[in-house]
């Protein structure tokens, strides 16, 4: 009985050992067949000894053997360390493989039809950032093969293949790009790559995200990948290049910029200002494009611009440079970032620059469109004597020297007769950096508007007008004439303080500092000073100016002297055919009046009051043309004595 029981125990142990040995033999056989296929680079045999899932994912391309080499999966003698039965047809096996006895975790599955055990996946321990992690060969192979497919798609430039390798915002921007832009971008990204066999990607995986570095001849490509629905897709790609002009910090951002450029050019050429507004910076659109006649400046069609372009990016700014009929065009873009996390950044066109004359002359669309608009507005304001518009559309220098100096009561009498002729027409525009010249015709008179950029806006800085006997600068002419009119108005208003402020030291010492009111003379001096301009001479070197008003029969010549950087009245020569000499110094005449009333001027001098109106009083002597003479009507003062 004991013998029988002993025999039964020995038999049971033998059978258990035999069964365990057979089990280990099954696993070892499956693993060694897999390893042998890798060593022999036998893709057909490898597919036979792996599951359908592994083959479809990790062995789906003829280059799969190259990528398996990259993973450096150990092969050789196999020793089973541990076996875990997950189910009847599923095992997890820990084995030591190769000379270094590297531990690998194999997942084995039994093929239902043949009963053969094959490899379903392998997990290899890897160290990343001081951490030891288990990486699936299937997952790594899927990523490596996806990278090769990505590169192949971008090298061939096939639109559907490119879109198939991307995901998220990257794909959204690429989908909306015109084919010409996408094709050009794909060429820039693919570049001059190494042959497929020599490319060995360096991939860093972290859960569902991977950063892959792939060598190029002049640098490397960096692809950002994301695992979505079991498939790796590119969310961006960068190109680090040692060659100038080939560096791409982010293809996604470039696609976004190119999309803005494409939409802008399409809307511009279709004259669709609603869509143009969507891709333009607010100040650029409102200050230029909104009111512009877009036909005045031709821009290339988007598909033509995509043929040959250069995109230069620096921080939040970018410049898209292309050619149109042999002329270079630059679209400046600015990045607009939202405060909301979920809202992606966008780019808007903030200016377009046209380069002409082989790049020696450049003009912005803002200058081109606003120069016409501001010139038309300014011309109309001149004819209407609209001081508010004139001040708003002038440079600070023009405004401070002329428009801000005009007395409100004298606005209607501003000497702007040349600009009230009907028929204003712009003939040509010339751009030179911050200065723009607008050549026009006012009636039959040629005029040139000088526009200057100030704080991003074009403003009128001067008008050039070629008339005999006066400077070509309308600004300089008006500056002197406004001073003359203001001086006449101060005399008319008995404003001694203003007269002192705008008179020379000599004039003040002889007259204005000694009186409380304008001495009464035999001549209506304000009336004569309001006469029409005959000639104007300004000598900056000598520091004097002479303005002749009216004519020799009736008028005045105002003499200015420069003191402390400003022109002030030094004397007023009266013209009158009632005098023996025809000329009389106002300083002398006022001194004579003061002498005749010595001791009574400050207390008892008779105050002269005048009313200046804008009426026209034509005088047509036989030898002269009609002269505009504002009428000065005496009121409540004695009739002046006639000169003996």
From TrEMBL:
<feature type="signal peptide">
    <location>
        <begin position="1"/>
        <end position="23"/>
    </location>
</feature>
<keyword id="KW-0732">Signal</keyword>
<protein>
    <recommendedName>
        <fullName>Lipoprotein</fullName>
    </recommendedName>
</protein>
């Amino acid at each position: 009985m004991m013998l029988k029981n002993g025999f039964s125990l020995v038999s049971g142990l033998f059978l258990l050992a035999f069964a365990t040995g057979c089990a280990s033999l099954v696993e070892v056989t499956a693993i060694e067949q897999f390893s042998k296929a890798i060593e022999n680079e036998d893709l057909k045999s490898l597919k036979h000894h792996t599951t359908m899932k592994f083959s479809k994912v990790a062995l789906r391309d003829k280059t799969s053997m190259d990528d398996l080499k990259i993973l450096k999966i150990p092969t050789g003698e196999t020793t089973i360390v541990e076996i875990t039965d997950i189910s009847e047809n599923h095992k997890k096996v820990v084995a030591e493989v190769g000379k270094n006895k590297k531990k690998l975790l194999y997942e084995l599955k039994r093929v239902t039809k043949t009963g053969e055990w094959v490899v379903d996946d392998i997990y290899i321990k890897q160290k990343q950032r001081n951490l030891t992690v288990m990486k699936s060969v299937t997952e790594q192979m899927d990523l490596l093969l996806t990278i090769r497919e990505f590169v192949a798609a971008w090298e061939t430039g096939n639109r559907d293949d490119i879109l198939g390798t991307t995901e998220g915002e990257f794909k959204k921007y690429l989908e909306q790009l015109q084919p010409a832009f996408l094709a050009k971008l794909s060429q820039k990204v693919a570049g001059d790559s190494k042959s497929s066999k020599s490319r060995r990607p360096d991939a860093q995986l972290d859960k569902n995200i991977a950063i892959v570095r792939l060598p190029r001849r002049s640098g490397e490509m960096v692809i950002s990948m994301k695992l979505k629905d079991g498939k790796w897709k590119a969310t961006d790609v960068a190109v680090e290049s040692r060659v100038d002009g080939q560096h791409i910090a982010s293809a996604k951002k470039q696609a976004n910029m190119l999309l803005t450029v494409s939409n802008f050019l399409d809307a511009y050429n279709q004259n669709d200002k609603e869509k143009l507004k969507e891709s333009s910076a607010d100040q650029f659109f409102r200050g230029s494009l909104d009111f512009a006649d877009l036909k005045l400046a031709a821009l290339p069609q988007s598909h033509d611009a995509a043929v040959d372009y250069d995109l230069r990016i620096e921080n939040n700014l970018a410049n898209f440079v292309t050619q149109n009929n042999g002329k270079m065009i630059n679209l400046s873009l600015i990045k607009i970032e939202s405060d909301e996390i979920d809202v992606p950044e966008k780019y808007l066109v903030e200016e377009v620059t046209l380069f002409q004359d082989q790049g020696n002359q450049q003009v912005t669309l803002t200058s081109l469109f606003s120069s016409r608009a501001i010139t038309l507005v300014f011309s109309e304001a001149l004819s209407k004597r609209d001081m508010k518009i004139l001040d708003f559309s002038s440079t600070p220098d023009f405004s401070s020297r002329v428009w801000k100096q005009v007395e409100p009561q004298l606005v209607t009498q501003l000497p702007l007769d040349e600009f009230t002729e009907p028929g204003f027409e712009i003939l040509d525009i010339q751009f030179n950096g911050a200065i723009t010249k607008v050549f026009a015709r006012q009636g039959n008179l040629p005029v040139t508007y000088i526009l200057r950029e100030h704080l991003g806006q074009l403003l009128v800085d001067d008008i050039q007008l070629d008339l005999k006997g006066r400077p070509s600068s309308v600004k300089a002419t008006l500056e002197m004439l406004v001073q003359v009119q203001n001086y006449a108005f101060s005399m008319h208003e008995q404003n001694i303080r203003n007269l002192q402020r705008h008179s020379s030291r000599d004039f003040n010492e002889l007259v204005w500092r000694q009186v409380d009111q304008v001495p009464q003379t035999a001549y209506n001096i304000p009336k004569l000073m309001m006469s029409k301009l005959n000639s104007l001479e300004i000598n900056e070197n000598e520091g004097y100016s002479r303005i002749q008003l009216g004519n020799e029969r009736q008028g005045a010549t105002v003499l200015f002297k420069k003191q402390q950087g400003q022109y002030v009245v030094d004397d007023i020569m009266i013209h009158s055919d009632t005098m023996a000499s025809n000329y009389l110094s106002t300083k002398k005449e006022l001194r004579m009046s003061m002498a005749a009333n010595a001791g009574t001027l400050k207390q008892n001098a008779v105050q002269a009051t005048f009313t200046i109106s804008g009426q026209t009083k034509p005088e047509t002597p036989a030898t002269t043309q009609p002269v505009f003479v504002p009428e000065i009507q005496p009121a409540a003062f004695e009739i002046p004595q006639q000169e003996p």
